[in-house]
Amino acid sequence: QVQLVESGGGLVQAGDSLRLSCAASGRTFSTCPMGWFRQAPGKEREFVAAINWSGGSTNYRDSVKGRFTVSRDNPKTTVWLKMSSLRPEDTAVYFCPAAARPRLGVPTSPRVYDVWGQGTQVTVSS
């Protein structure tokens, strides 16, 4: 069974840091882009960050640029999201999806991603 499992979420104060992890099992995604999305209560799921298959190219939504860093370890197909200077508006469930087939680039559309984890809750208090 192919799975992506996110971890590392929690309750922090504004200005704190967290590192989210996403581990794949059942197959490797080493030739596929992976990403991070988030969904806050009552809001649509939104793109946060993406990383291409090699880790050499990344993309971020404007509001997290300079604060979040996405990285990956291909042999283990693990992806991380290092989040710094967290703000209350970063509060959401964070999801780590992967594209099922090899492709170039760092897609921002959720439609590109075929496999999704269950998410991990990040809560930032003011």
Task: Describe the protein in words.
- The chain is mainly beta and 126 residues long.
- The protein is 0% helix and 46% strand.
- The chain contains no helices and 12 strands.
- The protein has strands at residues 3-7, 10-13, 18-25, 34-39, 46-51, 58-60, 68-73, 78-83, 92-95, 97-98, 115-116, 120-125.
- Strands 2-12-9-4-5-6 form a 6-stranded mixed β-sheet, with no helix packed on it.
- A hairpin with a 6-residue loop joins strand 5 and strand 6 (58-60).
List the keywords.
126 residues; mainly beta; 6-stranded mixed β-sheet; 12 strands; 0% helix
Please tally the helical runs, counting DSSP H or I stretches of 4 or more residues.
0
Give me the side-by-side strand order of the main sheet: 2-12-9-4-5-6
Report the strand count: 12
Structural class: mainly beta
Low-confidence stretches: none
**So what's the overall shape?**
globular
Rg, rounded, reads: 13 Å
Question: What percentage of the residues does DSSP assign to strands (E)?
Answer: over 45%
Roughly how much helix do the residues carry, as a percent range? under 10%
State the order of secondary-structure elements, H for helix, E for strand: EEEEEEEEEEEE
Mean pLDDT: 95
Task: Report the sheet with the most strands, covering strand number, pairing sense and barrel closure.
Answer: 6 strands, mixed
For the termini, the CA-CA separation is 40 Å
